[in-house]
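Case study.
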Amino acid sequence: IAGITQAPTSQILAAGRRMTLRCTQDMRHNAMYWYRQDLGLGLRLIHYSNTAGTTGKGEVPDGYSVSRANTDDFPLTLASAVPSQTSVYFCASSDEGLAGHTGELFFGEGSRLTVL
Amino acid sequence: GQNIDQPTEMTATEGAIVQINCTYQTSGFNGLFWYQQHAGEAPTFLSYNVLDGLEEKGRFSSFLSRSKGYSYLLLKELQMKDSASYLCAVSDSNYQLIWGAGTKLIIKP
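After joint prediction, the assembly is written out as follows.
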């Protein structure tokens, strides 16, 4: 089934540990995004990539890093997790990048991360 | 600052009509999106408005007034499966999406 796959689905992590959330899409979309969703707040953009080989910072990038070595994969890394990074993380993709973004986003099922 | 406002929660009856409002204040405007998100699931696209007026798509319609910074999502013939959160998002002058916190819609039999 075409779409976006995220892993892990859920994870409990000790503070200070390193964690990588994986995201793979098979729709050949140019643009990919990482959002976090917290209760009572709208989705907040962490990092984005308009095309393979390029990345950019979103609204809340601190403590996170990304890479885009190819079209399909867009992993998100927490170098040293802190409790405030407890959240649900969504990876998304679209045909267009931020410049000229008028198309819909396709979301993965989310990764629920708890940092203790 | 940029801001998207929508009601936190609404309740409606199965078979009825409900209107979910969204007001926005953003630096520039390149379109407004509505997404549906069932509990524990990913958001899914419902509609996109960039010009003023009403866009109808089956039981769902979305309206936009750019001069008023206002949109609404109209759901007709409500079904129990419509119980979900509805997210409003605006594409600003940099084409970055600004998201509202979402409206949780509860459908009662």
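Observations recorded in class. The two ends of chain A are 35 Å apart (CA to CA). The interface with chain B takes residues 40-45, 58-59, 90, 97-102, 104-110 of chain A (CB under 8 Å). We will return to this complex in the next lecture.
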